[in-house]
Structure to design on (428 residues):
């Protein structure tokens, strides 16, 4: 357990209700000592909860890895010390894929909602020890894990390559050779978590947003939702990705930005982000 | 060429929406999506894209597309062992595929054909036909008549 498995990148402390293969509820307490908790990791927590439901229903022979989400809606920021109530409903599950939707709440208020997510189911043994997963699942369903294990993630280095102000920002992402999260994601096959890749694209979007005309009433642009999220390929430790955030549409009420990551010419992942003035719908 | 029992008009009716879905799922311009485009060879689709496309088609057209539906339907009443042996499509299996995927140009069917490479044959029109068949099946279920 000292190697980071179930510690460095695990975001479910306890499973509180389970209707096998259909619905699952759980919670996660964001460690109070963290300086921040990226909102994409709340999405990761919902995805991990759904993954537990899918793996348990298939007796830990297969697990969902990455995939796609039709939309991820952000309603409110989260803070260290808060308890996330997590819930997911599986719409479809077989040996090939799981389709689900889910959300996270803080004090009864939805903070993130994932709709129409699909994860390809791959053989568990390629990624993890099935027996370790069974034991962890039993722990989560009973006493629960001790909260507070997550200590944050090492920042990923983005080297800006070009900035056509207000139109397009490009950068190179250097995936570290070693990072704590690789021990947990995944022990037998370390790959860059899709949510961390998404988090890096948010940095680019933030740079792009700084060069956009101010929205209505002079409020700053904030991320409202992400649609058409797709991770098409794994990125191993030490990989290098070309990242791009490109403005596709803008009005006084919304700005749409397409983001993508490429390994050479191969498209590794992409998404469409909607920015809106702060405190608007 | 169109699928047996599926008219050009039926394909034309669903094609614009299917093309839009393909373009959105594959990150290309809708103008690049032609009826005879091979999803893998021409549009660069990967396995995750097929999952994406199927789920989008299901949501848009309100149909259920069981995974493996195309190969299963092409196989018809052939036993699995008659359709493929040792991971390679048999001659009988290849004949069924050519008949079922009648929209796919004949020169794209290579022999021997590994089962794993069947998806390389799929074109945009293949998925138009899947949608039409599933719509017919759903309508038949509602009316109690065979599709």
């Amino acid at each position: 357990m000292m190697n980071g498995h179930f510690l460095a990148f695990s975001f479910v402390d306890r499973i509180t209700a389970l209707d096998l293969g259909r619905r699952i509820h759980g919670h996660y307490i964001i460690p109070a000592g963290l300086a921040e908790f990226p909102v994409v990791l709340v999405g990761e927590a919902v995805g991990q909860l759904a993954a537990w439901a899918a793996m348990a229903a298939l007796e830990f022979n297969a697990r969902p890895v990455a995939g796609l989400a039709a939309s991820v809606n952000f309603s409110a920021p989260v803070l260290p010390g808060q308890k996330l109530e997590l819930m997911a409903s599986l719409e479809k599950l077989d040996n090939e894929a799981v389709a689900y939707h889910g959300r996270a709440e803080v004090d009864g208020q939805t903070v993130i909602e994932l709709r129409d997510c699909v994860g390809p189911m791959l053989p568990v043994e390629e990624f993890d020890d099935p027996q370790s997963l069974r034991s962890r699942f039993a722990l989560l369903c009973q006493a629960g894990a001790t909260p507070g294990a997550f200590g944050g993630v090492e920042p990923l280095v983005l080297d800006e390559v070009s900035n056509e102000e207000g139109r397009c920002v490009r950068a190179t992402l250097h995936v570290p050779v070693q990072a704590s999260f690789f021990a947990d994601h995944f022990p037998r096959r370390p790959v860059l978590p899709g949510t961390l890749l998404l988090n890096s694209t948010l940095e680019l979007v933030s740079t792009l947003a700084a060069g956009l005309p101010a929205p209505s009433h002079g409020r700053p642009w904030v991320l409202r939702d992400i649609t058409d999220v797709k991770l098409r390929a794994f990125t191993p430790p030490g990989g290098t990705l070309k990242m791009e955030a490109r403005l596709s549409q803008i009005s006084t009420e919304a700005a749409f930005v397409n983001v993508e990551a490429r390994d050479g010419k191969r498209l590794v992942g992409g998404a469409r982000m909607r920015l809106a003035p702060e405190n608007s719908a | 060429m169109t699928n047996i029992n599926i008219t050009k008009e039926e394909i034309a009716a669903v094609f614009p929406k299917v093309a839009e879905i393909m373009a959105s799922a594959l990150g290309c311009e809708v103008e690049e999506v032609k009826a005879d485009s091979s999803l893998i060879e021409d549009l660069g689709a990967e396995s995750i894209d097929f999952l994406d496309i199927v789920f989008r088609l299901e949501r848009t057209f309100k149909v259920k597309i069981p995974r493996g539906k195309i190969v299963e339907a092409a196989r018809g009443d052939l036993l699995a062992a008659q359709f493929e042996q040792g991971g390679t499509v048999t001659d009988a299996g290849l004949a069924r595929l050519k008949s079922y995927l009648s929209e796919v140009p004949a020169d794209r069917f290579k022999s021997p054909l590994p089962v794993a490479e069947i998806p390389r044959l799929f074109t945009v029109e293949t998925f138009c036909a899947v949608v039409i068949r599933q719509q017919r099946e759903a309508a038949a279920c509602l009316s109690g008549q065979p599709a």
Observations:
- Chain B has six helices and three strands.
- The mean pLDDT of chain B is 90.
- The interface with chain A takes residues 24-25, 27, 44, 46-49, 51-52, 55, 59, 67 of chain B (CB under 8 Å).
